[in-house]
Amino acid sequence: MTPPRFLDEIGAKLSELAAHSPARDIEKNVKALLGSAFGKLDLVTREEFEVQREVLAHARQKVAELEARVAALEARLGGEGGRQA
């Protein structure tokens, strides 16, 4: 029964070393640097992007409907002998 406990102790020591290693500090510093760089950029969240995508889809649909109405009105005006309103 001693070997499993020994392995657990080694695992705990390795985890402790990894938590306090220079690599961990470098990782934290890189994350902070990237966070600062991204903070300066004009980025939007995924949620904001999705909302704007829906707004754009709605606007495109409305433009298509208005184009169809204008075409129908132009056709009707053209059918009345070119008379303008």
Features:
mainly alpha, 85 residues
Describe this structure in words.
This protein is an all-alpha fold and 85 residues long. The chain has two domains: 1-42; 44-85. Helices cover 84% and strands 0% of the residues. It is built from three helices and no strands. The N and C termini lie far apart (99 Å).
Architecture blueprint of SSEs:
Elements: H1 2-19, H2 22-40, H3 46-79
Largest sheet: none
Secondary-structure element string = HHH
What's the number of helices?
3
> Unreliable runs, pLDDT <50, ≥5 residues?
none
Distance between the termini: 99 Å
Structural class call reads: mainly alpha
Write a brief structural summary.
The protein has helices spanning 2-19, 22-40, 46-79.
